[in-house]
Design goal:
The protein is an alpha/beta fold. It folds into two domains: 170 residues, Alpha-Beta Complex (Quinone Oxidoreductase, Chain A, domain 1), CATH 3.90.180; 136 residues, 3-Layer(aba) Sandwich (Rossmann fold), CATH 3.40.50. It is 28% helix and 29% strand. The chain contains ten helices and 20 strands. Strands 3, 7, 8, 11, 12, 19 and 20 form a seven-stranded mixed sheet that branches. Strands 15-14-13-16-17-18 form a six-stranded parallel sheet, sandwiched between helices. Strands 2-1-6 form a three-stranded antiparallel sheet, with no helix packed on it. It is globular, with a radius of gyration of 20 Å. The two termini are 19 Å apart. Bound molecules: nicotinamide-adenine-dinucleotide and zinc ion. GO terms for molecular function: L-iditol 2-dehydrogenase (NAD+) activity; metal ion binding. It comes from Candidula unifasciata. Belongs to the zinc-containing alcohol dehydrogenase family.
Length: 350
Amino acid sequence: MNMSDLNLTAVLYEQDDLRMEERPIPEPGPGEVQLKMQQVGICGSDVHYWTHGRIGDFIVKAPMVLGHEASAVVSKLGPGVTSLKVGDRVAIEPGVPCRVCNYCKTGRYNLCLEMKFCATPPYDGNLARYYVHAADFCFKLPDHVSFEEGALLEPLSVGVHATNRAGVGLGHTVLVCGAGPIGLVNILTAKAKGASTVIVTDIDEARLKVAKEIGADHVVKVSSRDARVTAQAIEDALGDKADISIECSGAAPSIQAAIYATKSGGVVVLVGLGQEIVELPVVNAGVREVDIRGIFRYANCYPTALAMVASGRVNVKSLVTHRFQLEDSVKAFEAAKRGEGIKIMIECGR
Ligand code: NAD
Ligand code: ZN
């Protein structure tokens, strides 16, 4: 093999067995583009597949390439591709649905049962030098939007979708529970949508500091497992309950607190995914008409996320705290496992 033909790739063989290996460079099929990968962010789910070998019913049964928060340069066009050209800089929306089922046809393609999502078993991700993807799930980046920002459109899209489902609008008070990367993108999108006050909870002081830096108006350090105590602390800080709560920790006491801390007639959006079965104050939610809504990833949110970043209305740059080269991906994953920083980016291009 010629050196320039090599395709260094991060492959998860099974739990705790992440290897860097050379694979062939893939060729694009009809409607696809070959991509020279640039930046790939590490997501909590990538780390979880590595440390646990599974997330719920998604089990790593065969070697799987990790990575799904990515940007790239188009290096080859498959037959029929007219929307992109070689050299275009793109953000990659990692999930490609079937396009023909009822969910797809009605626009809720994130719910498609045939979804092929990068680094969700059995589908490969894109933490590699080269990768092939459907051209219509690649979004051209303006010159002034960096590859790191392009990769960050993935978590940002989760924030766009969650705040859409929550109905965040002008003048709302919004509670964001959990200040990990997903909580942080929800702070950014809630603010951009006109929320007048965003209050953020976490059990970790360092994460709350970052929340403040990116625009949270109030922060509450959670120190009790009693959800009513936490909800009261939130209400004390706001002077009232929140109009909308976006739960981004998945922790049971936090979901409970989100319900108690939301105004009657308000909305709680469940973003965090923790235990399968959680005890919740459903009578409290029921008699106060607090709507509880789930979200799953996003649909039709990449263009919005890109427009917000390109216009400067949302600044995601400060989320990146660590940078590694593709060769050092295992080191990058070790840093992520230790819980260091916020977003760890891996540079794949040279
Ligand atoms: P993360 O683990 O980095 O962040 C979670 C944060 O919650 C941490 O800062 C943690 O300290 C905090 N926390 C823990 N217990 C808490 C409590 N009782 N009260 C308040 N805060 C508490 O994870 P992340 O990458 O930010 O993702 C957040 C969650 O969103 C995860 O559960 C992830 O699986 C989920 N997620 C869901 C979707 C979806 O489509 N629904 C998409 C992406 C991520
Ligand atoms: Zn479908």
